[in-house]
Amino acid sequence: MNDLSIKHLLGIKGMTRDDIETIFSTAAEFKEVLNRPIKKVPSLRDITVANLFFENSTRTRLSFELAQKRLSADVVNFSAASSSVKKGETLVDTVSNIIAMKVDMVVMRHPHPGAPHFLANKVNTTIVNAGDGTHEHPTQAILDSFSIREKLGNDLEGKKVAIVGDIKHSRVALSNILALKLQGATVRVCGPATLIPKHIESLGVEVSHDLDETLAWADVANMLRIQLERQGDKDAIRFFPSIREYTMNFGLTQERLNRLDKELVILHPGPINRGVEISSEIADSDHAIILDQVENGVASRMSIMYLLAGR
Q1: Which position among 31, 70, 137, 171 bears the catalytic label?
Q2: Architecture of domain 17-136+295-310
């Protein structure tokens, strides 16, 4: 079965396990395409996709654009910084004008949680959420799970995954929790108490404030950066005493890994703050699959857009 149960990709919430499996099997086929001498297929040749980024992005935007071009789609890029949004135009008016130019699919990143959901109810086109505030980042969670499965085998049932760092302000954390739980993994979040949301246990996750104990428990560690830009003042540290103290307690170093009697799979959604949540030697080591995540991001996003366009 090659159909998704969803019309839009607004978040992991609302997806089924079959949806995830369909995306993964299609992504595996597209990854083979990306390793050929000619890396392009005509799958979306008659489709026009608009990338609407109301928030800064490097990796996600490039990954989506490359995925679209590999599928032979026509691509329109929109930046809020140089648009009529600066003149007071509303989100619905902006998108409606773009769709009036016969755009088939919109990939959108927005600083406000729920913006893609709001838009999906207002316009008649397919919406893909590329990150909405501190809410969700579904394509990142999909590529993360795809990367873990490549490393550990094609099933996450019973695997132990730790998500470490600034859980409170991370959209990657929520989407990963939902995607991993959907696949049967056991999930634990780890970080300072001030960076763990209240009642997160209601999502079916464990909570820890001890990184060493969590690493000893885990098969996989997904290290998140501190999201200072979402904490109210990017120049001020509000949730812990200092960067140095955070690194001492929650930074992944070679010394910490040496204490383990097993191999740990390490992920990071980027951008990496080297020497803070993860040391350079770990980020560049064989334990880390960070560059695999980048490669799999293109294949996963090709799969998602292809399947949604087909639907």
Answers
A1: 137
A2: 3-Layer(aba) Sandwich (3.40)
**Segment 162-210, tens digit of pLDDT:** 999 999 989 999 999 999 999 999 999 999 999 999 999 999 999 999 9
Tokens 């609407």 belong to which residue? 52
Tens of pLDDT, residues 51-101: 999 888 889 999 999 999 999 999 999 876 655 566 677 888 888 888 888
**Residue 223 CB neighbour total at 10 angstroms:** 26
- Rounded CA gap, 130 and 107, in Å? 6
Of the residues 8, 22, 26, 60, only one is catalytic, namely 60
How far is residue 32's CA from residue 239's CA, in Å, rounded to a whole number? Answer: 44
* Domain ranges (residues) in the chain: 17-136+295-310, 138-293
Of these residues, 8, 61, 109, 188, which one is catalytic? 109
The beta strand positions in the chain, using DSSP E, are 48-53, 74-79, 105-110, 126-132, 160-164, 186-190, 206-208, 220-223, 265-267
Q: Which CATH superfamily is domain 138-293 in?
A: Aspartate/ornithine carbamoyltransferase (3.40.50.1370)
Distances from the Cα of 293 to the Cα of 17, 57, 173, 249, angstroms: 21, 16, 15, 26
Distance, in Å, from the CA atom of 38 to the CA atom of 5, rounded to the nearest integer, reads 32
* Annotation marks residue 137 as catalytic: yes
Which tens digits make up the pLDDT trace of 118-144?
999 988 999 999 999 889 999 999 999
Paired tokens of 187: 């999930």
Residue 310: strand, helix, or coil: helix
Confidence of residue 1 (pLDDT cuts 50, 70, 90): very low
